């Protein structure tokens, strides 16, 4: 029974690996929309990353349910997250850059135009290692958690595939993608105190930031669909800067 949470963690890793396979699986997975030719593999990869996020949540729940938390489980969780929410999103950004550079008639064959995408997995791994060593990050985080960053990037292919021409135009611009890479990478490795969704209690006064974030999330999902993911991400960072969470 003690290994059940670890099996959930390994399933998270498996989903991350499957996502990477689909990111580069173009045969029979290309279609055209208003933004041009797009890879269906990126959509499938995004689905697996979101499924992995559900599993990532459940493995902690299952560990507490069976009283099977362990240092081994914590290390496995970070290693799985490094692949699923670091490497896989980095490869999504790599493919989005390829597609954007092609559309902009820029030299997509030049590796230097694509290497910035690797900042995502590098900073994700750095963030996970820092989290493992810092025991203060219980009721607040230092830097954006790797799953939050990974899910935000995983949502981008869905947004490109919507009928929102404004969003498609922005995400088909390689320079916009470079800005997104730099901002998300910086936020992951920064020491900015950010909201943890763990509740010490359920009083409104003590959890105003969390309740506001929950309200923003619900309204965004209802009205913005896939655009809700980056909107929630931005709201999360802004609310953290406003409320300045700490360990107290």
Write the layout of secondary structure elements.
Elements: H1 4-23, E1 30-33, E2 36-39, H2 40-65, H3 71-103, H4 119-133, E3 140-142, H5 146-160, H6 165-171, H7 174-189, E4 193-195, H8 208-224, H9 228-243
Antiparallel strand pairs: 1-2, 3-4
Helix pairs in contact: 1-2, 1-3, 2-3, 2-5, 3-4, 3-5, 3-7, 4-7, 8-9
Describe the structure.
The protein is mainly alpha-helical. The protein has a single domain (4-197), classed as Up-down Bundle (Four Helix Bundle (Hemerythrin (Met), subunit A)), CATH 1.20.120.1760. Helix content is 67%, strand content 6%. The chain is built from 9 helices and 4 strands. The strands form 2 sheets. It has a two-stranded antiparallel ribbon. Strands 3-4 form a two-stranded antiparallel ribbon. 37% of the residues are buried.
Short descriptors:
248 residues; mainly alpha; Four Helix Bundle (Hemerythrin (Met), subunit A); two-stranded antiparallel ribbon; 9 helices; globular
Low-confidence stretches: none
Shape call = globular
The residue-averaged pLDDT reads 86
In angstroms, what separates the terminal alpha carbons?
35 Å
CATH homologous superfamily heading: CDP-alcohol phosphotransferase transmembrane (TM) domain
- Note the main sheet: 2 strands, antiparallel
Summing up helix and strand content along with how strands pair, one would put the structural category as mainly alpha
How many β-strand runs? 4
Number of helices: 9
CATH topology assignment: Four Helix Bundle (Hemerythrin (Met), subunit A)
Structural domain count: 1
In summary, what is this structure?
With 248 residues, the protein is mainly alpha-helical. The protein has helices spanning 4-23, 40-65, 71-103, 119-133, 146-160, 165-171, 174-189, 208-224, 228-243, and strands spanning 30-33, 36-39, 140-142, 193-195.
């Amino acid at each position: 029974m003690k290994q059940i949470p670890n099996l959930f963690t390994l399933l998270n890793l498996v989903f991350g690996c499957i996502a990477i396979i689909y990111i580069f699986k173009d045969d029979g997975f290309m279609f055209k929309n208003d933004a041009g030719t797009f890879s269906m593999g990126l959509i499938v990869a995004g689905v697996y990353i979101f499924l992995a996020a559900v599993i990532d949540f459940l493995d902690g729940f299952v560990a507490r349910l069976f009283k099977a938390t362990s240092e081994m489980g914590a290390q496995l969780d970070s290693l799985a997250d490094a692949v699923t929410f670091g490497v896989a999103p980095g490869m999504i950004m790599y493919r989005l850059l390829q597609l954007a550079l092609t559309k902009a008639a820029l030299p997509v064959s030049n590796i230097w135009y694509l290497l910035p995408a690797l900042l995502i997995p590098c900073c994700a791994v750095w963030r996970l290692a820092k989290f493992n060593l810092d025991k203060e990050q219980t009721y607040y985080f230092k830097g954006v958690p790797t799953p939050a960053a990974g899910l935000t990037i995983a949502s981008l292919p869905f947004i490109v595939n919507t009928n929102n021409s404004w969003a498609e135009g922005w995400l088909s611009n390689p320079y916009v993608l470079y800005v997104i890479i730099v901002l998300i990478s910086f936020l992951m490795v920064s020491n900015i105190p950010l909201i943890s969704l763990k509740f010490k209690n359920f009083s409104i006064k003590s959890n105003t930031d969390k309740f506001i974030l929950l309200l923003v999330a619900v309204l965004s999902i209802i009205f913005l669909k896939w655009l809700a993911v980056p909107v929630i991400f931005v709201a999360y960072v802004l609310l953290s800067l406003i409320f300045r969470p700490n360990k107290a």
